[in-house]
């Protein structure tokens, strides 16, 4: 995969992939369409079959089980309605109309190919990175038995439900509020809306690293860290 420019993303510029410019939306743009619509766009543009079918379209779970091992792209483009929603969502992140060619099974922008079955996962990673989401492809777990696989799937489903209902998860407003009250970064309630969502999460990640350092520093200075204790490093590469 050709990586996008982390520098451009950090500065709030558009980032090129496959000869097409992608944009990380600003907080103002997200607010104008509504958070729920934005997150729907993110799910659809990420080609996440499970979340699209089960979370957005309330697909029958038993029916989904029959197709969960099929390629995400094949399943999603077989539904014309879902294809149109994906086109609309991709358009949001590109700021240009996106169409789907039913003959080549390819998404098109300005009469040139955007993505198909061969590279849609790369596109998904670009979208996720520019929106501060986890872009790393999860490694497929190998199971010693079908029973072990079933138990793990039940556990993951339970954890997903718990996390979904938890009040401890930070929503976007909370993240912005944290950045606004942090000292020395120049971010406040009057200008935070001009940040891109990538800038928001990248800055939060860096601030979290530095906060961990500042919390441990007095302990280390007073000699209470212990022989094996190490100071957390904040001058290092971020995930975003």
Automatic annotation (TrEMBL):
Highest taxon above the source species: Bacteria
Protein name listed in UniProt: Uncharacterized protein
């Amino acid at each position: 995969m050709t990586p996008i420019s982390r520098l451009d993303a950090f500065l709030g510029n558009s980032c090129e992939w496959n000869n097409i410019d992608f944009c990380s939306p600003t907080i103002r743009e997200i607010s104008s369409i509504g958070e729920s619509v934005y997150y729907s766009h993110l799910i659809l543009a990420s080609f996440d079959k499970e979340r699209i079918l089960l979370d957005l379209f309330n697909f029958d779970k038993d029916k989904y089980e029959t197709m969960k091992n099929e390629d995400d792209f094949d399943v999603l483009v077989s539904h014309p309605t879902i294809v149109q929603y994906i086109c609309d969502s991709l358009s949001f992140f590109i700021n240009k109309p996106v169409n789907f060619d039913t003959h080549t099974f390819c998404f098109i922008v300005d009469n040139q190919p955007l993505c198909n079955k061969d590279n849609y996962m790369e596109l998904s990673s670009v979208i996720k990175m520019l929106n501060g989401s986890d872009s790393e492809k999860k490694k497929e777990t190998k199971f010693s038995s079908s029973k072990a696989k079933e138990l793990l799937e039940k556990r993951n489903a339970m954890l997903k439900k718990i996390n979904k209902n938890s009040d401890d998860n930070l929503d976007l407003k909370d993240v912005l509020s944290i950045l606004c009250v942090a000292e020395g970064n120049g971010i406040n309630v009057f200008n935070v809306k001009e940040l891109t969502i990538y800038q928001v999460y990248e800055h939060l990640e860096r601030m979290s690293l530095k906060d961990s350092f500042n919390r441990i520093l007095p302990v280390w200075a007073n000699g209470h860290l212990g022989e094996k204790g190490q100071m957390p490093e904040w001058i290092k590469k971020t995930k975003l």
